[in-house]
Design goal:
The structure holds two protein chains of two kinds.
Chain A lengths: L4 E3 L2 E5 L4 E6 L6 E7 L6 E6 L5 E4 L2 E5 L5 E6 L8 E8 L12 E2 L3 E6 L1
Parallel strand pairs in A: 2-11
Antiparallel strand pairs in A: 1-3, 3-8, 4-5, 4-9, 6-7, 7-8, 9-10, 9-11
Chain B lengths: L3 E4 L2 E4 L5 E7 L5 E8 L3 E10 L2 E4 L6 E7 L2 E6 L8 E8 L8 E3 L3 E5 L1
Parallel strand pairs in B: 2-11
Antiparallel strand pairs in B: 1-3, 3-8, 4-5, 4-9, 5-6, 7-8, 9-10, 9-11
The chains are: A mainly beta, B mainly beta.
């Protein structure tokens, strides 16, 4: 069962444009994390949001956690070719691992291509 | 960079053979995880460990077993590999609470089962 739905799955835009990637669920998460993955490598954490309504900024990237802690968005301003990659959202339902199926639940990812 | 290595990085094997993948970390992280990544499915948790000899099942654990005899090593074993286990396998480690702590991922192992 896929608990986290990411949209769009694929996005190709021109350098300088803005974009938003969405991560939605019917489940409540204790936190949402966003990762970026390059081809042939493992995912690398960009940000963790914990509080409903929380907004975090990382240079041109803005992350928001929904008020009900069921959804999140990633907005990129003035996209650059270096932003190209696979963006993954991941939710944690428990505070600690242990005592049952756990770890992170990942969305399927958004393949982002920024054309020069 | 959390110093996570995976071996082998690539492996081709035949259906029915046993396969063991190794994850080694140098950061003394308590938590370790095995995920598989497949097109159309994203990353899915196979097994995880919350300490030496303490392991538990994840979302897609059927056909897999794990062992952790020391903090730095987490082994994933496919007792009898099947074609459906062709995938890219990622190991990850974490220092503490999964909810807020970073998970550090290794470079992955690409496994092909013929």
């Amino acid at each position: 069962t896929q608990l986290l739905e990411q949209s769009p799955q694929f996005l190709s835009i021109q350098e300088g444009e803005n974009l938003t990637v969405y991560c939605n669920s019917s489940s409540v998460f204790s936190s949402l994390q966003w990762y970026r993955q390059e081809p042939g490598e493992g995912p690398v954490l960009l940000v963790t949001v914990v509080t409903g309504g929380e907004v975090k900024k990382l240079k041109r990237l803005t992350f928001q956690f929904g008020d009900a802690r069921k959804d999140s968005s990633l907005h990129i301003t003035a996209a650059q070719p270096g932003d190209t990659g696979l963006y993954l959202c991941a939710g944690a339902r428990r505070m600690y691992s242990g005592g049952g199926a756990d770890g992170l639940t990942f969305g399927k990812g958004t393949h982002l291509i920024i054309q020069p | 960079d959390a110093g996570i290595t995976q071996s082998p990085r690539h492996k081709v094997t035949e259906t029915g053979t046993p396969v063991t993948l190794r994850c080694h970390q140098t950061e003394n992280h308590r938590y370790m995880y095995w995920y598989r990544q497949d097109p159309g499915h994203g990353l899915r948790l196979i097994h995880y460990s919350y300490g030496v000899k303490d392991t538990d099942k994840g979302e897609v654990s059927d056909g897999y077993s794990v062992s952790r005899s020391k903090t730095e090593d987490f082994l994933l074993t496919l007792e009898s590999a099947t074609s459906s286990q062709t995938s890219v396998y990622f190991c990850a480690t974490g220092l503490g609470a999964v909810s807020t702590d970073t998970q550090y991922f290794g470079p992955g192992t690409r496994l092909t089962v013929l």
